[in-house]
Amino acid sequence: MADMPSPHGSSSDDTAPDLSTVWLRVFLEVARHGSFTVAARVLGWTQSAVSRQISSLEAALGGAPLFDRLPRGVRLTEAGRVFVPHAEAVVEELRGAGRELAALRELAGGRVRFGAFASADAAFMPRALATFRDRHPAVRLSREEGLTPRLLDRLASGHLDLAIVSTTGRASLDAYELHHLLDESLYVAVPAGHPLAGQGPVRLAQLADADWISGSARPEGTLLDAALRQGFRPRIAHVVAEWTAKEGYVAAGLGVTLVPALAADSVRPDIALLPVLDEGAPARAVYAATVRGRSLSATGTAFVGVLREVAARKS
Questions:
Q1: Please, what's the b/e burial string for 288-313 (b: 16 or more CB within 10 A of its CB; e: otherwise)?
Q2: 179 has which bridge partners?
Q3: What is the value of pTM for the model shown?
């Protein structure tokens, strides 16, 4: 009775043989030298051990001999000649995999896919990226920008290896491994000619009557949560998303805005920054987040190390 076809339209004869990579190495050495004895010497084995490996390979491939055994040495059969390029391809693929894995261990290759929120991109991330690139120029870096909730979604779905996130926005961080980078203070940005400019730290309540510029029409879940903690609800006059645009509004006298410490080094010269006194907890914590239970590569671990190093210089 004829063999029945498999459900996928291929017979059982299409099943790949279960081959040892050791057999392939031995086969290629024998084919290269035309001798079990010479191949054994190269491999540091006995001649009988080489012979057993070839016999096992031949059996796994269906029993056809790969070599004619001659009085002096061996010669590839037709089956052996057909098999040579396949064995070479498999061995070379494995060597290539070994080289790539070694490059990852030695940080001589690989990539890191990361995301960061906007104010981290203002000065902190460029410094970290420059430091990492100088040390590991062969590692490819790819970056995304977004708010913390979106970055966490991208991280969970496997599109990012790590994400620079903050506690602003009240996103749940429970499912993630958090590598603490820094606790971030706040500044109020006011026009350079503002009466409080140059007078030192302020309490936000001193600006309770000011017009505020914010990225959201509601203070909840934004940096302006700090105002709620100090007992007043800020009057948001303008909703502006981009940091550079917020600074332009401030410079034009249209209101004041909060600036996190990560963005403080990059503000324009025609506004003044006033440190905020907050007797409670720091305005926000900043972390490098990874998915709990998902291994971070050597390149990712090195990247987190650089982030911590740059954060330590900032604090």
A1: bbbbeeeebbbbbebbbebbbebbee
A2: 288
A3: 0.63
Structure tokens at 267: 């503000």
Angstrom distance (rounded) from CA 200 to CA 203: 10
Q: How far apart are CA 88 and CA 205, in angstroms?
A: 74
What letter represents residue 115's amino acid?
G
Top pLDDT among 280 and 238 is at 238
Q: What percent of the chain has pLDDT over 70?
A: 91
Q: Could you write out the DSSP letters of every residue in 130-193? A: HHHHHH-TTSEEEEEE--HHHHHHHHHTTS-SEEEEESTT----TTEEEEEEEEE-EEEEEETT
* Kind and range of the H or E run holding 248: helix 243-251
Q: Are 163 and 157 in contact, with CB atoms under 8 Å apart?
A: no
Element (H, E) at 76: strand 74-76
Give the integer Cα–Cα distance in Å for 247 and 215: 12
- Which residues fall within 8 angstroms of residue 29, CB to CB, at 6 or more apart? 39, 42, 43, 50
